[in-house]
Design goal:
Helix content is 30%, strand content 27%. Helix 2 packs across helix 11 and helix 7 crosses helix 8. The protein contains 13 helices and 17 strands. Strand 1, helix 2 and strand 2 form a beta-alpha-beta unit. The protein is globular and about 60 Å long. Strands 9, 10, 11, 12, 13, 14, 15, 16 and 17 form a 9-stranded antiparallel beta sheet that branches. It has a 4-stranded parallel beta sheet with strand order 3-2-1-4, with helices on both faces. Bound molecules: adenosine monophosphate (AMP). The site of adenosine monophosphate (AMP) has 14 residues, from strand 6 and strand 14.
């Protein structure tokens, strides 16, 4: 049989494939770990100068001089990091398939573009305004009614570049503290909890959804994700599926997409989306039939998607700043430890632990026990622990 006949059979599974990944952090590392059993190879392209993937081939290119080398080594390209110039992704797309397409990157990099798209698709958002001076920030705070959250329109993540204004009089100070020329100003949402929905779209348009996760943040950083999120009604889940599916279809998206949502008395309100595998989906490594990482690799490679059902109940605990007593964690029979090989630093994500259980009560005490070996872990407080 000739190669061309093999290819038209649609069986991409046996052909060797090198996946190029833009970004080279822990998400890329976990993509590679999931892709190796499927005989994929990985080349990472890092523009930050501090790659931490720790495996695969890494091209460090702060000035964009080695893009051709990267292109020559890869069959198709995806991202693990969205804060890189869209022009780079667009240039790559002229030579190799890029999944998801650069438009997804462009929208997710810019809170204004993202909220505008949400609005066009009928996905509820907090009421918002754009501010391009301390005066317009004050005017936005007055128009929306305080409290408001001001966020840098681009380049923000993990709560960085944000300030909450309790009164319009705080505008000048907040403007200075954030130090960006364009801000997204949002009405502060009163929510009962934060959840995320992760979905995967294949090249043929097939979409699968993971059970939703309940996310607990501390000082702007995700600390715990519980999945499946307890007590989510069928209506709420259907709403989340509708929202993320409309985004996937609008962007002709291929791969994993994450949508972060607030649960409010009036239903779901969208916060932001990420065009990649997400920290709130790390539980899927042991907690779902197919991990988010494997499903992303499957999607960008053109393979069928894997089952997304949960295997029991999970809670992911992020390891932040200090590694803690990893040997004690390894002794616990219900945990899976994932370390990223990074050095300790305040606020830095060093790894995560997936805790598994058969009941939410069991999950609660197991998480608390595990967190006691992680210094600096905030109190495990979520819908399971409140009333
Ligand atoms: P972000 O970087 O937009 O994901 O924001 C980080 C965190 O700040 C979110 O996970 C929320 O806990 C909180 N937050 C962001 N926007 C709002 C808002 N409009 N109202 C209330 N809390 C918010």
């Amino acid at each position: 049989m000739t190669n061309s006949r093999l290819n038209t059979s649609g069986k991409a599974g046996s052909a060797p494939m090198t996946i190029g990944v833009l970004g080279a952090g822990q998400l890329g590392r976990m993509l590679a770990l999931a892709g190796y059993p499927l005989a994929k190879s990985f080349v990472f392209y890092d523009m930050s100068g501090s790659p931490s993937a720790g495996l695969g081939e890494v091209i460090v290119d702060r000035e964009g001089k080695y893009l051709d080398d990267f292109l020559a080594r890869v069959d198709r390209v995806t991202y693990e990091f969205e804060h890189l110039p869209v022009e780079v992704a667009e240039r790559i797309a002229q030579h190799k398939p890029v999944y998801p397409a650069p438009r997804a990157l462009q929208v997710c990099q810019n809170r204004e573009a993202e909220k505008t798209l949400f609005g066009e698709l009928g996905i509820p958002t907090p009421e918002w305004r754009i501010a391009d001076s301390a005066e317009s920030l004050q005017a936005a705070a007055e128009a929306l009614g305080c409290p408001v959250v001001a966020k840098s329109n681009t380049e923000g993540y993990d709560g960085k570049g944000q300030a909450v204004l309790k009164s319009p009089a705080e505008a000048a100070e907040a403007w200075k503290a954030i130090g960006h020329s364009r801000l997204m100003v949002e009405k502060f949402v009163t929510f009962s909890r934060e959840i995320s929905i992760i979905a995967v779209r294949a090249i043929d348009g097939n979409v699968v959804f993971y059970p939703m996760a309940e996310n607990v943040h501390h000082e702007g950083i995700l600390r715990y994700s519980i999945a499946p999120a307890p007590g989510i009604s069928g209506d709420l889940e259907a709403q989340a599926h509708r929202y993320i599916k409309s985004l996937l279809n609008e962007l002709d998206y291929v791969g994993v997409l994450t949508l972060e949502l607030f649960v409010t008395a009036d239903g779901l309100v969208a916060n932001e989306m990420a065009p990649r595998v997400h920290n709130s989906g790390h539980w899927t490594i042991e907690g779902a039939k197919t991990s988010q990482f494997e499903n992303h690799v499957r999607a960008v490679s053109g393979h069928p998607l894997g089952a997304t059902d949960a295997r029991g109940l999970s809670c992911m605990i992020n390891i932040i700043a200090e590694h803690g007593d990893t040997d004690r964690i390894l002794e616990l029979p219900y945990t899976h430890l994932h370390l990223y090989g990074k050095g300790e630093r305040p606020g830095r994500k060093l790894g995560h632990v997936n805790v598994l259980a058969d009941s939410y009560d069991e999950l609660k005490w197991r998480v608390r026990n595990c967190a006691s070996f992680l210094p600096g872990s905030p109190e495990f407080s979520c819908s399971l622990t409140k009333g």
